Amino acid sequence: MDVDKFKYNGWVEITIRPEKDVQQVTLHSNGLNITNADISFYRFGLFRQKWGKALDIGEDKNLTTITVYLQRPLIPGYNFTLRLDFEGEIRKELYGLYRSSYKIGNETR
Prior knowledge:
Layout: E1 7-16, E2 22-28, E3 32-43, E4 47-60, E5 65-74, E6 80-89, E7 103-104, E8 107-108
Antiparallel strand pairs: 1-6, 2-5, 3-4, 3-6, 4-5, 7-8
């Protein structure tokens, strides 16, 4: 996080257990820029194995969602892990990470 420039970055891992073949995943992402997406699964429940990278990441600004288009479909019966690397801005608007201030005596921080 770079507080002076009002920027942050990070990553998240999301577990997906599909009930049918899945070729894309849509998620809310208001104000985030996704810089990388890949998918893996645990073979035999023990060994993490790469399943593939995202072919493309589409954004719908009206719905504030992203759609991750996968290299190959996720198949039923496995737990997959979608890892998303992201960056964003600490905003003035009241969503996501946003700027705020408070007073101590006459001083605003």
